[in-house]
Specification:
single chain, 340 residues, alpha/beta, Rossmann fold, UDP-galactose 4-epimerase, domain 1, 7-stranded parallel β-sheet, 3-stranded mixed β-sheet, binds NADPH dihydro-nicotinamide-adenine-dinucleotide phosphate, binds guanosine-5'-diphosphate-rhamnose
């Protein structure tokens, strides 16, 4: 039985990747901070089907220990301070986990688990203030925030380990991908939640936004740059791409995205439109959610992934937004807890 170790198991992609690998008959071990495992009561059904190793990506000993105890065949490195918008305020933590966390992990695999295949989560954020469109594997990087700079470091040190030691480290340059498991500090979940609250007539929400205030206040959700644009796909499709890259005969970089660019306004229109409302009555702007420098417009040319992995997105944008809004409606109606 193939054994996979997943860092970032408590995050959106960690959960969906674990489900994908379990369905293939893998044995899955999740690497996660102890407090996060205790806090994620919603993930207990998953945690009963996998083993969980308590560790911190900031700690080399924890990583080495996980490798020596579990001897994985494949390692999926998803752990990161993953919010670009917060990365100015948390720039040193972002460097420590998003950049150095990956470096520590590659070094630990080199010493303690040679032969283990690694998937590493690179990001379209590395393209930053883009210099060509659409972006492909050869597009130069131009990071616009500390998170993006940290991902560039991790991506390049992955290349160095590949070249110097012949290690298998596949880098997935994934564009934005979403699901009902998305955390509330990301745009799509704020908007899906806002639309569900609007539908139910909720004036002040229980969930908090990036500033620690109710996501919905006086019936409205506060957002930043409505003109920003992204290429949004569904995370279930993207974890499939992670697995395919890891099975490829050679470790390479692959761009993964839908190839369709949409604005924040388009997203609002889709989510509020799904519940029969006009978003302009429920969304206001707040300068605190504007970025000091904006990434984009990021839009993928994923033709290499189609050609070499046979990968293409299967879930359409509207269906994804509907699934996210429905999940929030169901949670609000049953008073259930969703990821904070
Ligand atoms: P999430 O924010 O949902 O998950 C991040 C995970 O990293 C969480 O499990 C978190 O654990 C963990 N983590 C953070 N710090 C540490 C630490 N010190 N030690 C151990 N674990 C830690 O991100 P996603 O699932 O969306 O993304 C997965 C990866 O893919 C990330 O690296 C992200 O940067 C990258 N990516 C994501 C894209 C997307 O659109 N979703 C696109 C491109 C790249 P905890 O619960 O303890 O906070
Ligand atoms: P991003 O995702 O920064 O692209 O990083 P996010 O959903 O945070 O932002 C997308 C776009 O929406 C604009 N925006 C807002 N964003 C947030 N969070 N909150 C707001 O109120 C708001 N208003 C407008 C942003 O300016 C931005 O343009 C995600 C993460 O998953 C990263 O880990 C990953 O690497 C990239 O996607 C690809």
């Amino acid at each position: 039985m193939t054994r996979a170790l997943i860092t970032g198991i408590t995050g959106q992609d960690g959960v969906l990747l674990a489900e994908n690998l379990l369905a293939r008959g893998y044995e899955v071990v999740g690497f996660a901070r102890r407090a996060s495992v205790l806090a994620r009561t919603d993930l207990h059904p998953l945690f009963q089907r996998i083993k969980v190793f308590h560790g911190d990506a900031a700690n080399s000993v924890d990583i080495a220990d996980a490798l020596l105890q579990h001897r994985p065949d494949e390692l999926y490195n998803l752990a990161a301070q993953s919010a670009p918008g917060s990365s100015w305020a948390q720039s040193l933590e972002t460097g420590d986990i998003t950049a150095m966390g990956a470096h520590r992990l590659f070094e630990a695999v080199r010493r303690f688990a040679p032969g283990c295949r690694i998937y590493h989560a690179s990001s379209s954020e590395m393209f930053g203030a883009v210099v060509e469109s659409p972006q492909r594997e050869t597009t130069p990087f131009n990071p616009a925030n500390p998170y993006a700079a940290a991902k560039v470091y991790a991506h390049q040190i992955a290349h160095v380990y590949r070249r110097s030691y012949g290690m298998f480290i596949a880098c997935g340059i994934l564009f934005n991908h979403e699901s009902p498991l998305r955390r509330m500090n990301f745009l799509t979940q704020k908007v899906a939640y806002g639309a569900a609250c609007a539908k139910l007539g909720i004036q002040t929400s229980r969930h908090l936004n990036e500033e620690g205030e109710p996501v919905v206040s006086e019936g409205c959700v506060a957002l930043g740059n409505l003109d920003a644009s992204r290429d949004w796909g569904h995370a279930r499709d993207y974890v499939e791409a992670m697995w395919r890259m890891t099975q490829h005969p050679t470790a390479e970089d692959f761009v993964i995205g839908t190839g369709t660019l949409r604005t924040v306004r388009d997203l609002c229109e889709a989510a509020y439109g799904y519940v029969g409302l006009d978003w302009r009555n429920f969304v206001r702007t707040d300068a605190r959610f504007m970025r000091l420098s904006e990434t984009g417009p990021t839009v993928a040319d994923a033709s290499k992934a189609l050609r070499e992995l046979g990968w293409k997105p299967t879930i359409r944008f509207d269906a994804m937004i509907a699934e996210m809004v429905d999940a929030q409606l169901a949670a609000l109606r049953s008073n259930a807890r969703l990821p904070d």
